[in-house]
Design brief:
Blueprint lengths: L6 E7 L6 H10 L6 E6 L6 H5 L6 E5 L11 H10 L7 E5 L6 H7 L3 H6 E11 L3 H7 L1 H9 L2 E5 L6 H14 L4 E4 L32 E8 L5 H14 L4 E9 L5 E8 L2 E9 L7 E8 L3 H8 L5
Parallel strand pairs: 1-4, 1-5, 2-3, 2-4, 5-6, 6-7
Antiparallel strand pairs: 8-12, 9-10, 9-12, 10-11
Helix pairs in contact: 6-7
The structure holds guanosine-5'-triphosphate (GTP).
Length: about 300
C-alpha cells in the first residue's frame, strides 16, 4: 500500500450480543487477500472477543481500559499511533466497539486532523439483533445513537423471523436512519461489498417526516431556498449539538451558502461537525436540505435553531 494513502477503517457498533464479532469474522474471511488489523474494545480485563476472532489476521489489539468512546486517556488514539509505527501498514482496519459505545464520539475521533491524515473512516456498521432491537431502542439511548450514526445497518438473527416482521423492522430502522443502507441476515453473513462506502442511499429527499417511529426517535426534515452564512451555521450547529447532546444524534444533508456557487455537505454525529464543499448545484435549484435525527425532535425547534444562520 502507498505510504501516504489513509488506511481504510471499518467501525462496528451494536448492542451487546447483537452479532458484531460474528459479522467481523465473516468480513475478515472475505478479506483474506488483504493485510487486516483488528482493534477489539471490551469491558473488563479479559478480552473475550479478541479470542473469538477466528479469521486469519495480522494483529489484534485488545483495549480493555474502559469504553473507547468515553475514556479521556484515550487508548484508541494511542493504538492508532502504534499501528502507524508498524513495519508494514495494514490495508484495512476493523474496530469492534463495546455494546454500549457512543458511536458519535468514536466517529468524531476520525475527524481529528492528525488522525484523518492517516486513517479514513469508510463505513460505520451497526449490527442489530432482530429479536430484541425494538426493546433495546426503548431501553438504551446508545442503541438509538448507534443506529442513527450508521452508514450500514445489519439486521441480524433473522432466521426465524417471518418475512412481514423483517420488512416491518427494516422500515422502522429506515425511518430512524434514512441515510443508511439496511440489510437483513443471519449469522453475520453479509457480502463485504454491502459494507463498503457507497452514495446509493444518500437521499435527495429524506424519509417522510410524517412517518412516526416508536421509541421516541424521529427525523425532522429542514428545507429552505434561502442560503446560509457558513460561519453562523457552524456556530449554531456546534452550540446546539453541545446543548442537546443527549437528544440530537445526527445531521446530514446539503446546504447552499450565500455568494458561493458550491453546495456543501453537512455531516454531524455526536460532538463532531463537518461541512465540506461537494461540487456545484448544476441543474438542481440550490435548496438547502438537512435531516436531523434524534429523540423527540420538533420541527419548530430546528427552524428556530437554524433561523439566525439564514441569509
Ligand atoms: N441464533 C442466532 N445466533 C447468532 C446469530 N448471529 C450471532 N449469533 C450468536 O449470538 C451470540 C453473540 O454474538 P457475537 O457475535 O459474539 O455478538 P457481539 O455483538 O460481538 O457480542 P458482545 O461482544 O457481547 O457485544 C453468539 O453466541 C453468536 O454465535 C444469528 O444470526 N442467529
Amino acid at each position: 500500500m502507498q505510504k501516504n494513502k489513509p488506511i481504510p477503517v471499518y467501525l462496528l457498533t451494536g448492542f451487546l450480543g447483537a452479532g458484531k464479532t460474528t459479522l467481523l469474522n465473516s468480513l475478515l474471511q472475505q478479506s483474506q487477500a488483504y493485510r487486516n488489523i483488528v482493534i477489539e474494545n471490551e469491558f473488563g480485563k479479559v478480552n473475550i472477543d479478541a479470542s473469538l476472532v477466528t479469521a486469519q489476521i495480522e494483529n489484534v489489539y485488545e483495549l480493555t481500559n474502559g469504553c473507547i468512546c468515553c475514556s479521556l486517556d484515550n487508548e484508541l488514539l494511542e493504538v492508532l499511533g502504534n499501528i502507524l509505527r508498524l513495519k508494514e501498514l495494514p490495508d484495512q482496519l476493523f474496530i469492534e466497539t463495546t455494546g454500549i459505545a457512543d458511536a458519535g464520539n468514536i466517529i468524531g475521533m476520525f475527524s481529528i486532523p492528525d488522525v484523518k491524515a492517516r486513517y479514513q473512516l469508510v463505513s460505520t456498521i451497526c449490527v442489530v439483533d432482530a429479536e430484541n432491537v425494538e426493546t433495546r431502542l426503548e431501553q438504551v439511548t446508545e442503541v438509538g445513537k448507534q443506529v442513527s450514526c450508521a452508514d450500514v445497518i445489519i439486521l441480524n438473527k433473522t432466521t426465524d423471523l417471518p418475512v412481514p416482521e423483517q420488512v416491518r423492522l427494516q422500515q422502522l430502522l429506515e425511518n430512524i436512519n434514512p441515510f443508511a443502507y439496511i440489510t437483513a441476515t443471519a449469522d453475520g453473513q453479509v457480502p463485504i461489498g454491502d459494507v463498503r462506502p457507497s452514495e446509493r442511499r444518500m437521499p435527495a429527499v429524506a424519509a417522510d417526516p410524517a412517518v412516526k417511529t416508536p421509541h421516541k426517535i424521529n427525523t425532522v426534515l429542514f428545507e429552505s431556498p434561502r442560503p446560509f452564512d457558513l460561519q453562523m451555521l457552524v456556530f449554531v450547529l456546534e452550540m446546539h449539538f453541545n446543548v442537546y447532546t443527549d437528544q440530537l444524534y445526527r445531521i446530514k444533508g446539503y446546504v447552499a451558502v450565500k455568494d458561493d456557487p458550491e453546495k456543501y455537505l453537512v455531516q454531524s454525529t455526536g460532538n463532531y461537525l463537518s461541512i465540506v464543499p461537494a461540487g456545484n448545484w448544476e441543474d438542481t435549484p440550490p435548496v438547502s436540505t438537512l435531516v436531523f435525527i434524534g429523540k423527540e425532535l420538533k420541527s419548530a425547534t430546528i427552524q428556530r435553531i437554524l433561523q439566525p444562520a439564514l441569509r
